[in-house]
Amino acid sequence: VQLVESGGDLVQPGGSLRLSCIASGFTISNYNMRWYRQAPGEERVLVAQTPTFGGTILYADFVKGRFTVSRDYAKNSIILQMNSLTPEDTAIYYCNVPTKNYWGQGTQVIVSS
User: Fold this and answer.
1) What is the DSSP letter of 35?
2) Res 55: pLDDT
3) What is the pLDDT of residues 43-86, one digit of tens each?
4) Residue 69 contacts by C-beta under 8 Å, 6 or more apart in sequence?
């Protein structure tokens, strides 16, 4: 089982990034999937959850209206589209399967001018 995040980068405030998490060893359609982030010196916090079929997508209040989580079943992956980024979005972003406690290695996002 493996989760591999990618897409993190240095971006200016107001910019956008698209993070990807590719899963292997299991099929994402069977599981809720989550994005978390951890800023320097802070705890890891939930950013968004994409549910299995029929569930409800959840977003943390601090990303509502700016971030969109989606699934690419053909690639067995989940996507986090991040728009209107601010320096407060600087963090390592992790992919997670909550019911299995699977975690990726994270991808670094830095928002700075």
Assistant:
1) E
2) 84
3) 999 999 999 887 899 999 999 999 999 999 999 999 999 999 99
4) 35, 48, 49, 50, 57, 59, 78, 79, 80, 81
First to last CA, the chain: 37
Residues 5/107, Cβ–Cβ less than 8 Å: yes
Per-residue CA distances from 53 to 22, 31, 33, 35, 73 (Å): 19, 9, 12, 18, 12
Rounded to whole angstroms, the maximal C-alpha distance in the chain is 40
| Residue from 106, 110, 97 nearest 26 by CA | 97
* Average pLDDT of the chain to the nearest whole number: 96
**Phi, psi dihedrals of residue 14, rounded to the nearest 5°:** 90, -10
